[in-house]
Design a protein that fits this description.
alpha+beta, 6 helices, 24% helix
Amino acid sequence: MSAKDQKLDNPVWYSLTETHQDVAIVYDDVKFYQPDYCPFGGSAAVNNTPKSLSQYSKLATNFYVVGHKPHFTEDLELSKELVCNQMILDAPVSVEIKEEIVVLQLHHKDELFRLVNLVQPGYFRKKTSQLGRYYGIFQNQELVAVSGERMKMCSYTEVSAVVTHPNHVKKGFAKQLVAHTANQIFRENKMPYLHVAETNIGAISMYEKLGFKTRRKISFWNLVLTQQ
């Protein structure tokens, strides 16, 4: 495995070191996204600095550390460990695009925010849509399915917010959107990757049919401030 590939073992840290450094908050050996963009942090060291996590909790009382299990102070508690498959795609996808896929603009941000939080609450913040491009499918002028880009490095871009409104599932919207998003990333000479809960068998199957392969398991450790 190349040094470039190893950056995927610590995607938050390297995204905030490279493409997203302008929205980074740095406390010693830990880098965090500004909380209105993304509630994620990552450490350069195996042992995260407890003081750094405590400092960030003053800005975000509920957040995630991605990678190794963090060490933290007694003012924080570990709410859950979300184990994900980190999947990567090594070639463009050939999929028939039957729907009109729209590049979402600033005036779509509230509708995008509502849809993602309806289906996947807790991860998508008011400024998450500014981290990359987002694409949508509309039905009767209503946004019903989306996909976009979140964490970005020089060589990799994360596909994220793959969401379909519950009234519009099983129509192939997610498959078309992920294929479109991934192919746009390849056009920038980057490789698409994504994170999906290891229990989400349906989504994993769809990604595998598009050509994604599981690279590794990676944990998202949810920390919550107990003393407010």
